[in-house]
Amino acid sequence: MEKLEQLREEGLAKIEACTSTKELQDIRVLYLGKKGPVQEVMKMMKDLSQEERPVFGQQVNEIKQTFEKAIEEKKVTLEASEINEKLKNEKIDITLSGLKPNLGNLHPLTVIQQELEDLFIGLGYEVAEGPEVELDLYNFERANIPKDHPARDMQDTFYIDDETLLRTHTTAVQMRVLEENAPQLPIKVVCPGKVYRRDDDDATHSHQFSQLEGLVVGENIRLSDLKGTLELVARRMFGESREIRIRPSYFQFTEPSVEVDVSCHICNGKGCPTCKGTGWIEILGAGMVHPNVLSMAGYDPLTCSGFAFGIGMERVALLKYGIDDIRHLYTNDIRFLKTFNRFE
Fold first, then answer.
1. Strands 305-312 and 159-161
2. What is the CATH number of domain 108-338?
3. Which parts of the chain fold into alpha helices (H)?
4. What three-state secondary structure class fits 74?
5. 10-residue stretch averages of pLDDT, the chain, 344 residues long
6. Is 52 marked as binding a ligand?
7. What is the strand order of the sheet 164-166 is part of?
8. Range(s) for CATH 3.30.930.10 in the chain?
9. pTM for the complete prediction?
10. How many CB atoms lie within 10 A of CB 29?
């Protein structure tokens, strides 16, 4: 009995001293295993009398139950402690800055197009699109460009066959819009998209570029309406202090035709290398819609009038962002494109 009591006290002390579930499991095996001290004590029963054996067996069973209960209680305590320690060590501080995702960004030409579209939608225009592979009818004839016009020269246009070509301007979309809506008034559309011309690529030229052309047709549309519209565009794209200058020009599908300059946003009109010392930068061509264009589309030029303009989006991007070579817009250099990342 003294040995049993000594075994009980020793086992309980070791269980209480355990600091981990692994150490506790080792104690369980040590005391309750087949080769443990409890089983060794049981071997002593053969040396006891018939009267002593039941009492001794009961005492051994009580010790085993005491050990099992103490181990289970200690296990609950140790598991809770280990979980708390793990949570403490693996805790994530959600107030810390996370890893910044590597997001893509809009191409500068897309940014320019969206800004222009948003501007004109706010003025009541609709956005119209058309095919890039276009018919000669809409690209040239309906735009008042007859068969013998220099713009039809093979050096300027990518022809697919005699009647099909890659459009040289988005004026073709305007011609389609006029035809589809005639004689409905008013017409207010902008037509963004890619155009193609046979040209040698250099710092300021490309065989493929983007245009946004605008068309307004209605009653009593005047050149002053065009001027006011273009002033708003210039100020919105290049700064509120910008002024525009209109110079006479010639386009086959407008009469009168004008070239439009905007005051240089670098020197504010004082003269600098960007504007070649003039204080002005040419940004687009425009004019009043030619009566022949209206007639061919099914409108009466005596009862309605309109204006049209065409903006080269590459030119706007070069001027607005100070880009010195148009080829940067097409070479897909990630370092260059990242400078227009709106998420940074």
1. unpaired
2. 3.30.930.10
3. 2-17, 21-32, 37-42, 52-89, 108-122, 136-139, 171-181, 223-238, 291-297, 313-321, 334-338
4. helix
5. 74 82 82 71 69 74 81 85 83 76 84 93 94 94 87 78 92 94 92 90 84 95 93 85 86 91 80 81 91 94 95 87 85 84 52
6. no
7. 133-135, 164-166, 159-161
8. 108-338
9. 0.66
10. 12
